[in-house]
Design brief:
Layout: H1 3-10, H2 12-28, H3 53-65, H4 87-99, H5 109-125, E1 132-136, H6 139-157, H7 162-165, E2 175-177, H8 182-191, E3 198-200, H9 212-221, E4 228-232, H10 244-254, E5 257-261, E6 286-290, E7 302-306, H11 309-316, H12 347-380, E8 385-387, E9 395-400, H13 404-421, E10 427-431, E11 434-440, H14 448-467
Parallel strand pairs: 2-3, 2-4, 4-5, 5-6
Antiparallel strand pairs: 1-7, 6-7, 8-9, 9-11, 10-11
Helix pairs in contact: 4-12, 5-12, 6-8, 6-11, 9-10, 13-14
Pyridoxal-5'-phosphate (PLP) binds near residues 140, 143, 236, 261 and 263.
């Protein structure tokens, strides 16, 4: 064995203690760090001829990057829809690396852990047992996987096994949606449908929710054509939901494939007051739910749920590799997901679900919604700002009360000022043609103190902005 490998093996205890201390030091100051990573340029290191061993590498890392680490996972990252990581989720992620077991094999503990975690998540979201699920790397891959199964279904309607014979029979297929997430369109690019296959139907006035009458009209005109409908349970700008119950009724009549992107909107199921937003979602054929957002586990985790395991197997099976066994006989997640060798990415979720249970998650979700509503109220009552949509769940979408032609520049300046303050991160957007700002609350750490601190900063920065 290489001498450095031998040395580190002998010092595993001392070294991991040091890494633990380093981790704790980081986590204990996370909310004091600037939220947004500052842009940084480094002279690139060369591959060392002789390595430096584990301990010196930690020191070298800290010297090089320690000052550039941001509190991305802290209480005031309100950009995009960014979750944090609960303490047990961090432990689960660390242990996933410690065990480094492949969650691809049959009859193993990793398989059991994933199956058990999926069952717990089904309970958390109130999904029927008819849905099976598996972990993938993020909601983009969950959308990809759901739409890959949908593609297989489309082919079957036309008497073609797309996984075997390819896409030829599906040329000119339309995928219907209203405000799809960009990752859905990206998935169409990856799946061979092409981005142009997406047909966006109109929304209700002042909403990001599909106009059901327009959808029904389209379905009537295309009766008998196999179709995929992608519904949103939570748009990123205003967390609007398509009327899933109405879409479920149309599905009964017109028989399309229904994929629901519920990346973070699924968490409405955790709180009785908001569960109605998801009424009808159990009629879906496939559902995307992210884990590294509102479930608050580290990056690299989302779930795809579906009722169509046979189509899923047809799509993702490793066929004809004797050493991998018979996909039809041996249940292995690797025959149901894009990845073959698989990180045990269910484990952080398992830890966090066991640690906090349904009540803990209801508290996280409730608290985030409450804070979003409070910020929405503050904005609505303040003349400097203009709330662009009601706060439906966890996102506040607003702009500045300046002349239309100044809105772009003013929102840009405010976002930059907030970034530079280090105290909070929000993201720019355009909502119904209006340059706007979004603040998303999905982190378990966020409290009313954070809201007070940010509101003060927002008012100060906005006052400075109008003086200029
Ligand atoms: C974040 C998000 C996605 C993509 O998720 P990743 O985890 O970034 O791959 C898809 N759909 C919606 C609605 C999202 O909010």
């Amino acid at each position: 064995m290489n001498q450095l490998l031998r040395q580190d093996l002998n010092q595993v205890d001392a070294f991991l203690q040091e890494v633990k201390d380093y981790s704790v030091a980081f986590l204990s100051k996370i909310d004091a760090l600037p939220v947004k990573s500052a842009s940084a340029e480094f002279e690139r290191l060369e591959l060392p001829r002789k390595g430096m061993g584990a301990r010196s590498t930690l020191l070298q890392f800290n010297e090089r990057y320690g000052q550039h680490l941001a509190g991305n996972s802290g209480a005031r990252n309100w950009g995009f829809v960014t979750g944090g990581a609960t303490v047990p989720a961090i432990a689960g992620d660390w242990l996933t690396a410690v065990f480094d077991m492949n969650a691809a094999d049959k009859d193993t503990a990793p398989l059991q852990i994933e199956t058990e975690t999926i069952a717990m998540l089904r309970q958390l979201f109130g999904l029927p047992e008819a849905f099976s699920g598996c972990f993938v790397t993020g909601a983009t891959m969950a959308n990809f996987t759901g739409l890959a199964i949908a593609r297989q279904w489309l082919g079957r309607q036309l008497g073609v096994d797309v996984a075997q014979e390819g896409m030829a029979a599906l040329a000119n297929t339309r995928i219907i949606s209203c405000i799809p997430h960009s990752s859905t369109v990206k998935s169409l690019a990856m799946l061979g449908f092409g981005r142009n296959a997406m047909l966006k139907l109109s929304s209700l006035p002042d909403r990001e929710s599909i106009d059901i009458a327009v959808l029904e009209d389209y379905l009537k005109k295309h009766q008998g054509e196999p179709l995929i409908v992608v519904a949103s349970a939570g748009t990123v700008n205003t967390v609007d939901f398509d009327d899933l119950a109405a879409i479920a009724r149309l599905k009964k009549e017109y028989g399309f494939w229904l994929h629901i992107d519920a990346a973070f909107g699924a968490f409405a199921a955790c709180v009785p007051e908001y569960r109605h937003l998801l009424n009808g979602w159990d009629a879906a054929d496939s559902i995307t739910i992210d884990a590294h957002k509102w479930l608050n586990v580290p990056y690299d985790a989302a779930m795809i749920f579906t009722r169509h395991t046979q189509l899923q197997l047809d799509t993702f099976k490793n066929a004809g590799a004797a050493y991998l066994g018979d996909p039809a006989k041996d249940f292995k997640y690797s025959n149901y997901t894009p990845e073959n060798s698989r990180r045990l990415r269910a484990l952080p979720a398992w830890y966090s679900l066991m640690a906090y249970g349904a009540e803990g998650y209801a508290d996280i979700v409730n608290n985030n919604i409450e804070l979003a509503r409070q910020l929405g109220e503050l904005i609505r009552e303040n003349d400097a700002f203009h709330l662009l949509a009601p706060v439906r769940l966890c996102v506040v979408c607003f702009t500045l009360n300046v002349a239309d032609e100044e809105k772009q520049a003013a929102t840009d300046v405010l976002i930059k000022a907030l970034d530079d303050s280090g105290k909070v991160m929000m993201t720019p957007t355009v909502y119904q043609g209006v340059p706007a700002i979004r603040a998303a609350f999905v982190n378990w750490r966020t409290t009313e103190n954070d809201l007070a601190l940010v509101w003060k900063e927002m008012k100060q920065q906005t006052a400075a902005l109008t003086v200029k």
